[in-house]
């Protein structure tokens, strides 16, 4: 009789464990309910980088980039100064250069701080010609 009680108690404990609600932390760890990236339209042209705003909110951000120029361009996003000094520098570049009228996109998990969006083509020559845009990332409000 004692072994049936132990088994029954074990079954009840397992049922309680597997039927409890899943909290947000466990959902995130399980790969569920990931935040939807904010989309920012970027236009590259001789010799500028344009975005509709220079203040973005922290979190996943997809930079949808169009080359409206006559020359080949690309986009690089890198952190300048992060508010949290323990974080490593953030730097990400489109996977390929964009010819005239081509489009590309990349997603970056932005942290609060200041950033630069540049065109690194020509060993920085495009950047030196003015293809650099500073922007600020602010914390999301709960």
Describe what you observe in this structure:
By secondary structure, the protein is an alpha+beta fold. It folds into two domains: 34 residues; 104 residues, Immunoglobulin-like (Sandwich), CATH 2.60.40.420. The protein has three helices and nine strands, in the order ααββββββββαβ. The N and C termini lie far apart (54 Å). About 15% of the residues have low confidence.
Radius of gyration: 23 Å
User: What is the ordering of alpha helices and beta strands?
Assistant: HHEEEEEEEEHE
The count of β-strands is: 9
Q: Mean of the pLDDT scores? A: 84
Q: Which homologous superfamily in CATH is the superfamily of the largest domain? A: Cupredoxins -  blue copper proteins
Q: Fill in the CATH topology of the largest domain.
A: Immunoglobulin-like
Give the strand order of the largest sheet, numbering strands 1, 2, ... along the chain.
Answer: 3-9-8-5-6
Morphology call: globular
Low-pLDDT segments, ≥5 res: 6-27
Largest sheet: 5 strands, mixed
- Mind telling me which CATH architecture of the largest domain this is? Sandwich
Question: Quick one: CATH class of the largest domain?
Answer: Mainly Beta
Count of alpha/pi helices:
3
- The CA-CA distance between the termini, in Å, is 54 Å
């Amino acid at each position: 009789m004692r072994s049936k009680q132990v088994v029954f108690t074990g079954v009840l404990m397992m049922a309680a464990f597997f039927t409890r609600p899943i909290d947000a932390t466990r959902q995130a760890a399980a790969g569920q309910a990931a935040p939807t990236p904010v989309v920012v339209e970027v236009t590259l042209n001789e010799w500028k980088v344009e975005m509709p705003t220079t203040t973005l909110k922290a979190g996943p951000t997809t930079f949808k980039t169009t080359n409206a120029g006559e020359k080949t361009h690309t986009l690089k996003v890198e952190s300048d100064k992060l508010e949290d000094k323990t974080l490593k520098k953030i730097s990400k570049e489109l996977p390929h250069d964009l010819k005239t009228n081509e489009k590309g996109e990349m997603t970056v998990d932005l942290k609060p701080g200041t950033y630069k969006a540049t065109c690194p083509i020509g060993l920085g020559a495009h950047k030196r010609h003015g293809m650099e845009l500073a922007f600020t990332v602010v914390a999301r409000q709960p």
